[in-house]
Amino acid sequence: MTVPQITLNDGVRIPQLGYGVWRVKDDQVVAPVLKALEVGYRHIDTAAVYGNEAGVGKAVAESGVPRDEIFITSKLWNDKHHKDDARQAIEETLTKLGVDHLDLYLIHWPAVVKHGDAYIEAWDSLQQFKAEGLTRSIGVSNFNPEHLDRLDGTTPSLNQIEVHPSFNRADLRAEHERRGIATEAWSPLGNQHAPSDLDLPEVVQVAEQTGLSPAQVIIRWHLQIGNIVIPKSVTPSRIEENFAVFGTELSTEQVDLLSGLDKGNRQGGNPLVDH
């Protein structure tokens, strides 16, 4: 199965469905990444702070899949925003992954509470890294419009943010579209904490109507509203299930039903008060 791709504002193409490895330990990440690549994923999302870049790199090397067929994303952590620190950080990331370039490098958080405006300096560094070929594309994560407004030069190719049906970020997604920035969804199933979006009656209803699992229904919703989506699981059957979403489409009415479930149910961090 070929995963649809989205063309970012710099012309780089990214698989719309990827595999995330947040909270997977380095010594436990190789097997699930190998499984994801075996199933057909060609987009792997990691970060320096996840502590598993070396394991991800080992899986990529062992998979037998050519490097140029795998889209690898990593992220610059909050305490590395200054120029020299950012340089050291991307070099460490490349070394751990065992690659000579990333496909996408993101500023993980604006981190204004602890680090003030340092993210602006970090953005200058990312633009330099792209110019040097250390990464094909650059973007941000967990940025609000006021943070995007402060960035000079290149427009970020995407903003990776928490999005799921009960926290669908319609206003921010619309702002991304206005600026030509793609939206990538982390915690896309909304199941970090109870209540889980997987248990919402409307999600279960659509699952029964379509023969999809609740997770597949939510992933289809993301794909059909234009999000890039990176579900995570270490269970082989669920890795397969999350990828098997291309044979059934939701109806317009079903998409609208899920889009109407927003309750402001943020489950992760808030860039205005955290980090």
Task: Write up this protein.
- With 275 residues, this protein is α/β, with parallel strands linked by helices.
- 39% of the residues lie in helices and 15% in strands.
- The chain has a single domain, classed as NADP-dependent oxidoreductase domain (TIM Barrel, Alpha-Beta Barrel), CATH 3.20.20.100.
- The strands form two sheets. Strands 3-4-5-6-7-8-9-10 form an eight-stranded parallel beta sheet. The chain has a two-stranded antiparallel ribbon with strand order 1-2.
- Strand 7, helix 6 and strand 8 form a beta-alpha-beta unit.
- The radius of gyration is 18 Å and the shape is globular.
- The relative contact order is 0.14.
- The mean pLDDT is 96.
- Output the structural class: alpha/beta
Strand content: 15-25%
How many beta-strand elements? 10
In CATH terms, what is the fold-level topology? TIM Barrel
Largest sheet: 8 strands, parallel
Give the mean pLDDT. Answer: 96
CATH class descriptor name: Alpha Beta
The N- and C-terminal alpha carbons lie at a distance of 39 Å
